[in-house]
Fold these 2 entries.
Entry 1:
Amino acid sequence: MAIRYYRSKTGRMLASLPTGEMIDVSNNKCKMVTDDSTSSLSSLNQYGGLSSSSRHKEKLDDNNHLSLHNYSDLSNFETLPLVDHIDSIKCSITRLAKIRDALGEHNQDFFSLVTKKDLKKNVEYFLQVMENVLLDERKQVSLRLMSEDDVLSEVEPDAVPNEVRNWLSMTFTRSVSNMKKKAEDKPKFKSVAQAIRAGIMVDRMLRRMSSSLESNVPAQVSKVLKTLNDWNFEVFAMNECSEGQALRYLGFELMQKFNILSKFKIQNLVMQNFLEAVEAGYSKYNNPYHNLIHATDVLQTTYHILNNAGLMSWLSSIEIFATFVSAIIHDYEHTGTTNNFHMQTRSEIALVYNDRAILENYHISATFRLMLNDSYNIIQELTREEYKEFRHLVIEMVLATDMSFHFTQLKTVKNMISLNETIDKPKALSLVLHCADISHPSKNWPLHEKWTNLLVEEFFSQGDKEKELGLPFSPLCDRNNTPIAQSQIGFINFIVEPSLNVMGDMIDKIFEQILSEEQSRTSKSDINDSSSTSESIKKKPIERPWAQHLTENKAKWQILAEEEKKKKEQENSEQIGENKNEDKKNGDN
């Protein structure tokens, strides 16, 4: 016998169960229908909804009834039956049906109809109902669970479409096939095994809903991701084979690798939405350098530094989460121009942030504003304390990428090392992110040269704007008078190499502190073994893959600098000759 749906004269939605019971499913009270006011019913069509003609003719009173496409009752939890009441099962069935209908809305996003918070509360209620049913069932004779007489025998195949029929069969019956009853036997909804299965099915359905929305990782992307621990990670190759989506793939990979999604209850879909939105922000101004490829490179480099130094175990989950997010968003919606340009042009964001760390403040603020939208809110399940720590870390780390803080930052870390102070985690992570942000001169020559060309082009583009506005050229922004090779030598000598050296010393110090703490926790009986182990580890130097590349790249730039110098001298000599010829002509006249 099939489950059929009807509409009464008064507009109520009714479900006729095979037991003969009639349930009012117009709202989440799920009352049994005992009066005769529903004797005249308009049958719903086989898809569980009103025919098109009936739908146009009948209108529900919004004050008393909910339309078929109104899901606001899923946010009403005040009138829910107690989980140990029989109506709780029927109410769960009704709400599951509405969630199913919301999932079937092709023209609207599911979470625009049902918020994540309401969905979670509904699922929690369903699971409580299922758990209560399971407890009751364990008090009964075990054979009852196996009795096919206690199960709804079938759902007529023509009553509903396949997907709806499958849903109903999974919710109410053990199986739709190979189970037949005599026509005079009325199946009874006594077995709770189906209710248990319904709970399991809901959980699986929600998991599939998230995982199905997660992009399948292309084979070539997976191949590149296997080199994640390489210092010279081929980020350009990854962006090419991922069709310009390198940041979302790497971001998702690292979040899963360290179980961030599970620990902080982040839905796959929300994380994907967030990463896609951040990628869109990086593409807003079509920057040659400050784009999603740069963000991907900084994220991978940050991970490499911490992971290869063995510092992941030194960090808590919230610190790892904040570090990854900081790397991902540290240049979000970058304008392709410097803070100095914003000050000179008196831009809107320069006025908002009072000329201090203009872009860095904007990256942070824009990201947290983005996460105000539930669809992108990857931190909505954090506790108050977790949120406070997360926000503090992100703000401190991203602000530290402002180059105006560079020397102050290095001095602070040097003092902590020399004074034998405990290394402050936020300051340590800030230096790691800062070094990752300026690390391209420490990669192999092909990567470094490509990054240099992209950065120079972005600088020159700013110089063109400055020229149009009648402003003086910012450093390295004049495309006709910038010694690229010399600028890179200076950048390596005075900025990159000292920063990486201090960071390396800092990591050594942290490692010593970790070993010291571990040794202090070792029992007296293991002191000798622990001491020898610690000593051997102390003697092992921390890997510094950047050192060799810095030396090699600097040597290449020095060769190019000589060529630049000769070329410039030749141009000056030619210019002097032209000037002399011009003067001679003027004298002859």
Note: The chain has 24 helices and four strands.
Entry 2:
Amino acid sequence: RGRDGRVSPDDKQVKRRRIAPPRDEFEERAPRSSGGDDGFPPAMLSFKAFLDTQDDNITDDEALEKYAEYKLEFQRQQLNEFFVVHKEEEWFKEKYYPDLSKQRKELLTAGLKRRLQVFMELYEKGIFKELRLEEGCAKDVEAALDCFVARLEGADDEMLERLQKHEEVEEELHKTTSVHLRNLHPGVLREEVEAMCRKFPGFLRLSLSEPNAEKRWFRRAWATFTRQAKIKEICLSMSSVRLKDVEVGPVLNKDLSRRIRTMPMLANDKKVVRADIKAATSIIQHLDSKSELWEKKVDEIVGEQTSNPLLNNITEYLIEEMSAEEDELLGYSSQESGAKPIDVDTELCRVLDRLVLYLRCVHSVDFYNGMMYATEDEMPNRCGIFHVRESANQVAVEESSINQHIESLAAKLKSITESGKELSEEEVSKLGLKHESDAVEIFIQANTEEIGNDKFLCPLSGKKFKGADFVRKHIFNKHAEKVDAVKKDVEFFNNYLKDPKRPRLPERPKPPPVVAAPKPARIEIQAPESSRRFRVEENKPRGSVKDRLGYKASAMRVTHAGSDPRGMVDYSDVDFNDDIF
């Protein structure tokens, strides 16, 4: 800074001056645990706190660059420590460990193919073909879903016919009863819970929820039994059961209060239905391809297509039509606003209904609710809640309401079309992607000990060799299973990193805002009449001093207009330190 108080161009981007002395580097201060005792992640340093760990001579650009590196390294550390803490837990292995996640996926795919088989069988029988997904057809929709569930459970054709006619059946295969277990320790295995449930007659299946990060990763469960099971006695018996020294907290799971639920009436509008057909087609193609349910065929014009018969000629219904030439000649505007009656196209609704039914029965997707019930096959109610359209009438709706409805549903369905997607190679590399060859080399070096001149020991077997290369060959030949385990651990960790929706510690809640103490109540005392009169006059606008003294502008004469003899005080010569501010 020069004598005139100005900053020279050469000094603007050179050094940061400071008052406080520098502290240790941030690497030494970085947290070493995956979370505190309160279950929340450790706090990351703010930029200001981070600067306190840096040298006085660091420039602004260097500070920003190092802070970005610190944040990335902090995230890597938290991911690695979370993995180490949870990698032995069954729920975590089922999601990411190669063998267990593959077995889990195969089990779910087998259930998916079974649902597809039953759906196509009933579709070819005509049970689903002409079904309208509207509020007025709710009983028929529920009967069709009952037929589907009963067939999954092994019902014969006679039972299906009776269900279609809304007749009662003796053996209610499509109905169950269940117990909800509210508290399961994260270390409890699935087979332990199933073993407990099998002690009671009528047990069918078990469903385990994802662990709850906000409740110390505890899980919930639903144990499903036949309709004839003595569910109250079972629930009472379970109340004394403890797993991992924790009570399971059983309660009776009620039947669904309402199975068929409705969407707004404007879902029947032609524009909405066409948009829904496009969205449903995209979801079907994505989920079918993900589970490899149908073979793919190649068309010379269109290209690769699915062999799913429900999507045959679907492009005919995806193209929007309008009388553009006629409207232009007659002077109509396509941008006209205002309420219009709902335009219902029966043919388009029929096409959409079969797609929505396919999604609900095969992929457990409740289309109009924008939800996918991924573990529904293990839950008490298969094909439980289902949303349909409210019956249409001549109610007028605004174009803006229609567009808003389309955008709202598309936002809900986005999570389904993006399910199963992984992070890019570049993103995963930044988070600490491991490489199989590096991990194997570290394993080999860790198990090659030099015990003398040209003498090496393999601690895995206790054998001695004349060279390190002989130990390497020995490990690959005699301990191949341990090398494979190292490779699987690398894949295990990488699978965790690649998941954009990977589990993580919950964010620490923000402290509640400080509420100012209420002001003490004001006590009004009735004053005498004379005082009240004085107070009214006192509260009137007082005006300027001249007004109150009775001066008029015309009667005033300036006798002196000299300048103020006091000079201005200038502080520009004082050299302030920037860091003070």
Note: The radius of gyration is 37 Å.
